[in-house]
Amino acid sequence: MRRKQKQTKPNGFLYWLVSLVTRLVAKFGFRRRVLRNEIKGKKGPFVVIANHQTKLDFINLFDLAGRPLHFVISESFYSTLPFQKTMDRLGMIPKQQFQTTLTDIRRMKTVVENGGGLVIYPAGLMCEDGLSTPIPAATYRFLAWMKVDVYVARATGTYFVRPKWSKRNRPGRTYMDVYKLFSAQELADMPVEEIREKADQALLFDAYREQEEHKIKYRKNYDLNGLEQVLYMCPHCKTEFSIGVKNHCHLVCANCGFQHTGDVYGFLRNTGKVGEEIRYVSDWSKLIYEELKKKVEDGSENILTCKAEIHMVDHKKKRFVPAGRGNITLSGDCFLIEGEINGEQTSLMIPTNSFASLPFQPGKYLEIQGGDKIYRCYLEHGELVMKFINMIKIYYEISTTVRARF
Length: 406
Known about the structure:
18 strands; seven-stranded mixed beta sheet; 29% helix; alpha/beta
């Protein structure tokens, strides 16, 4: 059970100390270059919305205001760290991804009412293919409701430093651009649809197209190990789960021989004898998504199921521990978990209408969140993880399109 928390003011000395560490990591790990920094020295309350390319994006932003900021972080991340009291003293706000309770809203509202700076990552997840995760529609109404100035912190290049699908750190140049997007007065007079349009323009990205402009070399960026879990379908023969990695730098289809090779910029080139070249990982990923979307829409494939080992958070041990086994089934509007959890037979239905995506690790697990509980499901067939995530995104896109018509 998630413990109730009172929002506290960050400890100034501790925040300053952590800022020194993050500044060093930003300088040497991310080789950060700040293009603009309009929150430096900013007094009074404000909200920062940031794009999310990799797990440690907050490091590039942590020290830029020159004053403590309240970062909204994943409840799953918070619950599995041994230094939760330190995070509380830093003013961090844990919340479930893609779910916002009244308690969460009150805590965030309290920050700005007390003159603080609040940082949120509206996408909720780092990207797996260089493309932004969809932003929940409630984000735009939330910004209007906060009634304070809103800034954008846009990171460029951090995806390539540590891709979600890779175990390797790949140092190289990154950029931070922090600027005002809305004044409090503009938000008060602006329709939600206009807020959405302007925020999306600032936050959404394609890391590979940005890389085309910057042409930055990242260490061993040609190493494609793990990418086969994201690019699981061959774009030439359309066979699923036929893509493997050869000699670290070649993606090869075992069915038709389609082959692409990575380079130090993260781009792909056709080094096989079949198929057209797909230069960007993001474009390959879009092809997979669109192919699955056609099947979902025509009804040929709209239910996905797999056996899984289910883990849950042990708050005393501060980590996920095995809780049982069961079948995980995704249909148009819900996840169904059936099996034995914590020694009891369980049949649990979790609506997914508001989920733009889910927390996951390609090839390993996905996390289904129901109320204050998180079910980390290690799929028996790990290659299905990305297909589950794509299907969740498709159902979210379909449901938001339907709602927009009415």
